[in-house]
Amino acid sequence: MYRYKGYKITREEISDRSGEIMMMVRPSMLKDLGLIKNIAGATFIYSLWEGYLEDYSLQKMMRFIKKKNMKFCQVHISGHAEIATLKKVVKKLKPGKIIPIHTFHSDKYGGLFSRKIVQVSDGEVFVV
């Protein structure tokens, strides 16, 4: 965590720049979210499985969203893509690196793409 301290942004900075910032949040951050000024009226985009909304922690988050008059948008996404789709995305975006996450075959990416592949395994990162 210390190596990222140069990128730290405070609650005050988030409050002051609320119209410019997008954050990834989870229910465990609810207390911190409650301390951010100008969060009322923000948009909350939910992109996980709909069934998780029944969990207690997300129910608590939903009450917070309602209380703060936030807009709730549910957008279904999937981290599962076929190889043909992955190739289209890489061709369009032309990324400098590809980091396979949530896959059973990250070792095969080197043969599929002509880009640098960063493999993540058990918390270790490998550049191929």
How would you portray this structure in words?
- There is one protein chain.
- The chain has 128 residues and is an alpha/beta fold.
- The protein is 30% helix and 16% strand.
- It contains five helices and five strands.
- Strands 3-4-5 form a three-stranded mixed beta sheet, with no helix packed on it. A two-stranded parallel sheet has the order 1-2.
- The mean pLDDT is 84.
What's the total count of β strands?
5
Number of helices: 5
Binned strand content: 15-25%
Q: How do the strands of the widest beta sheet line up side by side?
A: 3-4-5
Mean pLDDT: 84
Rg over C-alpha atoms, rounded to the nearest angstrom: 19 Å
Q: Which percent range fits the helix content?
A: 25-40%
Low-confidence spans:
none
Which features characterize this protein?
extended, single chain, alpha/beta, 128 residues, two-stranded parallel ribbon, 3-stranded mixed beta sheet
Task: Give a brief rundown of this model.
The chain is an alpha/beta fold and 128 residues long. It contains five helices and five strands. It has helices spanning 11-16, 30-34, 56-67, 83-93, 109-112, and strands at residues 43-46, 71-74, 97-98, 116-121, 124-127.
List the topology elements:
Elements: H1 11-16, H2 30-34, E1 43-46, H3 56-67, E2 71-74, H4 83-93, E3 97-98, H5 109-112, E4 116-121, E5 124-127
Parallel strand pairs: 1-2, 3-4
Antiparallel strand pairs: 4-5
